[in-house]
């Protein structure tokens, strides 16, 4: 998700938003065992070479966060199956910038994050740096 990538610059912001929507990258679907809504993210659908972090943040702000109840906790399930660095992995710095753009109220309601099918590199990275990257400090 390099903002200077020739791929992301060739698509307008509106086209990027439509692509994210068409691929159903983010979807509120079902409930966990505690009755919380689940925000499902399918990593293999992530068009990392075609969309900017700006487009992802705008999509979340306009089309996902308004559909999460402001008062209720929710869980997120990220499915990492068939993700590869060259095609559909946005990179840790982009994930961090997306996380930082999440409004405080939404973060406060995020009860759990489930990372399904992480590869060995993802496991090692998350075990070493995950708490630091995805917490306040």
TrEMBL record:
Residues 35-136 form the CRAL-TRIO domain. It comes from the Eukaryota. Transmembrane segments: none annotated. InterPro entries: CRAL-TRIO_dom (IPR001251), CRAL-TRIO_dom_sf (IPR036865). It holds the Pfam family CRAL_TRIO_2. PANTHER family: OS01G0948300 PROTEIN. This is CRAL-TRIO domain-containing protein. It comes from Cannabis sativa. The lineage of its organism: Eukaryota, Viridiplantae, Streptophyta, Embryophyta, Tracheophyta.
């Amino acid at each position: 998700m390099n903002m200077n990538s020739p791929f992301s610059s060739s698509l307008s912001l509106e086209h990027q938003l439509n692509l994210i929507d068409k691929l159903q990258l983010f979807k509120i679907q079902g409930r966990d065992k505690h009755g919380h809504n689940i925000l499902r993210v399918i990593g293999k659908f992530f068009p990392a070479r075609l969309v900017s972090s700006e487009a992802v943040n705008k999509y979340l702000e306009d089309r996902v966060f308004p559909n999460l109840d402001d008062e209720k906790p929710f869980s997120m399930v990220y499915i990492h199956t068939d993700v590869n660095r060259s095609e559909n992995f946005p990179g840790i710095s982009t994930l961090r910038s997306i996380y930082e753009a999440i409004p405080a109220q939404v973060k406060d309601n995020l009860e759990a994050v489930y990372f399904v099918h992480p590869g060995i590199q993802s496991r090692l990275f998350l075990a070493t740096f995950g708490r630091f990257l995805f917490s306040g400090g």
